[in-house]
Amino acid sequence: MIKAYYWKGKPNFGDLLTPLLLKRFCNLSSEWSDSSAAHLIGVGSILEKLDNDRCYIIAGSGFLKEGSKRENGRDWILGLRGPLSLKRIKVPSSNSGIVLADPGLLADELVPLEDKVHDLGIVSHWSDTTLSLNPTFLKYKPLIINVADDPLKVISQIGKCKKIVSSSLHGIILADAFGIPRRIEIPPLALEKPHQEGGLFKWMDYSASIGMKLEIGITQEPNRHIITDKQHELFDVFKEVKSIFAANAF
Q: Is the pLDDT at 206 greater than 70, yes or no?
């Protein structure tokens, strides 16, 4: 049983991907742990929450805010969400080959592939009460996807949509995993309280990881070859997680 830390302050499918991915790709059961006792840090903007005196397996996390740093220098850093997070973390000299990709890009592997039956899906950030009421999108009779639902249900619903509009970063990441055109709408709270919610940092970090400029309010599709390459790199990250866990007495 591996102890994993992820944010659970609000029910949110993106933050609950870590245990599902560990089970699917490492065959490892996990239990949530506070960061002071965790072994592994997976999906989410949670690097600010780590204990400076503790060593972690870091497998795809990122920072929430631009000014954050982690200078521990003793972690097993297998993957980070993107290059902006990489610039703010001290990498051990023995560490090499860090994958820059959000593990959510593998979430399409967690559910059966189904037909696209909805013209549009809306995935609002948990704090966003406006996107699902926007008449610009309601006229298309969209599927309103609740990020607080069971994560496998949310993933499946996203996969059934022909297009996605999202103020949730993992709504966008899941669209990219499934190869669905998507449109970013930044949640109002991120812009109103950037020091608390991080502003655009996590969005720019992820966009840079897939070779895209952050564009808001425009329907886009990333290069499919880049997404596929990132997915294969993430498979290797989870193989390494399993190897490290087996070789060390946690």
A: yes
What is the C-alpha separation between 14 and 37, in angstroms, rounded? 22
Instruction: Report angle CA 242, 247, 248 to the nearest 5 degrees.
Output: 105
| Closest to 78 (Cα-Cα) out of 104, 96, 53, 55 | 96
**pTM as predicted:** 0.95
Judgement on whether residues 140 and 43 belong to the same structural domain of the protein: no
Amino acid letter for position 200: L
Confidence check: pLDDT of 29 > 80: yes
Residues 6 or more apart whose Cβ sits within 8 Å of residue 17: 42, 43, 103, 104, 107, 151, 170
Question: Does residue 38 contact residue 4 with C-beta atoms inside 8 Å?
Answer: yes
Q: What is the mean pLDDT of residues 9-34?
A: 95
Same structural domain for residues 144 and 196?
yes
Q: How many Å apart are CA 92 and CA 176, to the nearest integer?
A: 31
In terms of domains, do 70 and 115 share one?
A: no
Matching residue, tokens 């309280």 = 193
